């Protein structure tokens, strides 16, 4: 069965904070309507390399996107490519690096910030380019894309948790409260999206450390959450999904041909 999918990437959210700060998401888990898994992100634990991993299933050392300053189009096939090749509609409300990876590079704000082009992998997009762009605005951008274009695949990517971590560090009220704020904003939309038939995945690229950075192998840098919600998920607590399996799992939900690894255990 084919499903529409929303993939939410809460940039910089460490599992250690997600497991206590995301009250709305955890309410779904506690009610037996969601599952929470602990993933270990690929290395290096940096943003652009891990956007590529999540959206293509390819580890940074194989994709060549090995640090944040690699500014070029991806050489890999992403969820967006598989979806559009199958005739589906794609959309993203995301940081501009996502546009640079899959649509056009370099990002030119006047041209690329608001995208509507059926020939591009991300056909409809609202892309921002400052890390403090409010999460509230970003989720509104995502909902506009959903209601205006009814995408089969929607990627939602706010940045304020990561921004707070870089300014204040992991073990700070500012970082934890930024996570809580994202959860509260998401609460406005989550049930609406589920009622509209979307399968929803909520994850992070990497975590954060007390040095106000991330790149290495500390658990707080590498361990990230994956919440799954929707009637296509098994909610099997024994499933052990990998970050590199998110792309293929989303493609399996969409029902599109692909050649990526899938975590079958999380699906019914």
TrEMBL record:
Pfam families: Phosphodiest (PF01663)
Protein name: Nucleotide pyrophosphatase
Lineage: Bacteria, Pseudomonadati, Pseudomonadota, Gammaproteobacteria, Pseudomonadales
TM segment ranges: none
Single annotated GO MF: hydrolase activity
């Amino acid at each position: 069965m084919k499903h529409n999918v929303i993939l939410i990437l809460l940039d910089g959210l460490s599992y250690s904070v997600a497991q206590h700060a995301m009250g709305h998401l955890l309410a779904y888990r506690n009610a037996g309507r969601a599952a929470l898994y602990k993933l270990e992100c690929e290395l290096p634990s940096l943003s652009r390399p891990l956007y590529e991993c999540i959206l293509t299933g390819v580890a940074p050392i194989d994709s060549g996107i090995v640090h944040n300053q690699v500014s070029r189009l991806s050489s890999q096939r992403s969820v967006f490519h598989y979806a559009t090749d199958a005739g589906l509609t794609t959309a993203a409300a995301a940081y501009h690096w996502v546009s640079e990876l899959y649509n056009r590079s370099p990002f030119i704000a006047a041209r690329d910030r608001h995208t509507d082009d059926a020939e591009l992998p991300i056909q409809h997009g609202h892309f921002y380019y400052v890390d403090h762009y409010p999460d509230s605005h970003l989720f509104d951008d995502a909902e506009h894309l959903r209601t205006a274009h009814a995408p089969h695949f929607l990627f939602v990517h706010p940045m304020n948790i990561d921004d707070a971590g870089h300014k204040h560090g992991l073990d700070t009220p500012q970082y934890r409260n930024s996570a809580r704020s994202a959860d509260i904003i998401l609460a406005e939309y989550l049930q609406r999206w589920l009622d509209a038939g979307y399968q929803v995945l909520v994850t992070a690229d990497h975590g954060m450390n007390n040095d106000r950075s991330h790149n290495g192998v500390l658990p707080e840098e590498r361990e990230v959450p994956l919440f799954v919600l929707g009637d296509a998920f098994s909610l099997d607590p024994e499933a052990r999904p990998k970050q590199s399996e998110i792309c293929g799992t989303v493609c399996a939900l969409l029902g599109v041909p692909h050649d990526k690894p899938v975590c079958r255990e999380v699906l019914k």
